């Protein structure tokens, strides 16, 4: 099969693009509005883009609350999602009306961050506290597009000490949750090491 995404001529009931670019980590983005109202939303178009400086970002379909709040306050927190967070993460993804607290709807508690005003989710395994660096419009070849890429420098990292073993993050114990295509998810349950070969 070959198809052109812009033409959506794949002949399938659902576009396979996101199912092919997988697994995608989930950034559970917490923010505060400029009035101080909390917001929490999961983004599977999320990743780390560099480590010096440490930059992470999430892509939003338009200027939704997370992107607006990051723009208005210059801050956001990326909470790392584990398999054990699946239910609450999914509940926070509902399209609640503006001003409704996803923390409350998902039965979660806010916890103060160390370097930014936006809170993290209490009890998460790890959280990246970020200060906004850029909001980049995502445009196609024709110049059109509705998505924006929100980028921030990580200025503080919280890690639950239970996931540090032998001076390293215990990735197997974290059991990260990832997004596949459609409504499918995966958990990181098989971890192996691979050394880079000498050139």
Give your account of this protein's structure:
The protein is mainly β. The protein contains 5 helices and 14 strands. Strands 3-2-6-9-10-5-4 form a 7-stranded antiparallel sheet. It has a 3-stranded antiparallel sheet with strand order 1-13-14, with no helix packed on it. It has a single domain (25-187), classed as Pnp Oxidase, Chain A, CATH 2.30.110. Helix content is 14%, strand content 37%. The model has no long low-confidence stretch (mean pLDDT 96).
Features:
single chain, 199 residues, mainly beta, Pnp Oxidase, Chain A, 7-stranded antiparallel sheet, 3-stranded antiparallel sheet, 14 strands, globular
Q: Compute the separation of the termini in Å.
A: 36 Å
Number of helices: 5
Structural Rg = 18 Å
Approximate helicity band = 10-25%
Largest sheet: 7 strands, antiparallel
**Tally of structural domains:** 1
**Total number of beta strands:** 14
Average pLDDT confidence is 96
Give the helix/strand class. mainly beta
Assigned CATH class: Mainly Beta
Low-confidence stretches: none
Task: Note the overall shape.
Answer: globular
CATH structural fold name: Pnp Oxidase, Chain A
Strand order of the largest sheet: 3-2-6-9-10-5-4
Strand content bin: 35-45%
The assigned CATH architecture is: Roll
CATH homologous superfamily name? Electron Transport, Fmn-binding Protein, Chain A
User: Secondary-structure element order, as H and E?
Assistant: HEEEEEHEHHEEEEEEHEE
């Amino acid at each position: 099969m070959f198809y052109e995404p812009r033409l959506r001529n794949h002949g399938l009931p659902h576009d396979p693009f996101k199912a092919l670019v997988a697994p995608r980590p989930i950034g559970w983005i917490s923010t505060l509005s400029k009035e101080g109202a909390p917001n929490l939303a999961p983004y599977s178009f999320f990743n780390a883009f560099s480590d010096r400086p440490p930059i992470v970002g999430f892509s939003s379909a338009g200027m939704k609350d997370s992107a607006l709040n990051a723009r208005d306050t210059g801050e956001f927190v990326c909470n790392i999602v584990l398999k054990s967070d699946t239910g609450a993460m999914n509940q926070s993804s509902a399209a609640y009306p503006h001003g409704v607290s996803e923390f409350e709807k998902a039965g979660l508690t806010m916890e103060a961050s160390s370097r930014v005003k936006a809170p993290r989710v209490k009890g998460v395994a790890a959280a990246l506290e970020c200060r906004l660096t850029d909001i980049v419009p995502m445009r196609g070849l024709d110049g059109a597009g509705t998505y924006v890429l929100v980028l921030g420098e990580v200025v503080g990292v919280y890690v639950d000490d239970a996931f540090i073993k032998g001076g390293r993050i215990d990735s197997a114990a974290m059991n990260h949750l990832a997004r596949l295509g459609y409504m499918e998810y995966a958990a990181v349950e098989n971890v192996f090491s691979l050394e880079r070969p000498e050139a």
